[in-house]
Each structure stands twice: as structure tokens, then as C-alpha cells.
Design brief:
With about 25 residues, this protein is mainly alpha-helical. About 75% of the residues lie in helices and about 0% in strands.
Length: about 25
């Protein structure tokens, strides 16, 4: 089930953003 809390969802998005930013 994809019943993740919004905090967990934002956390994963933030991690992906960090990887994107550090890749530049």
C-alpha cells in the first residue's frame, strides 16, 4: 500500500532533490 505519511513523501522528494543538486 502507498499510504505513506506526507512527511515521508516530502522526505523522499527532498532526498531526490539533494541528489539532483549535488550532481550538478
Amino acid at each position: 500500500t502507498d499510504d505513506l505519511p506526507i512527511d515521508a513523501y516530502l522526505d523522499r522528494g527532498f532526498e531526490a532533490w539533494l541528489k539532483k543538486a549535488s550532481a550538478q
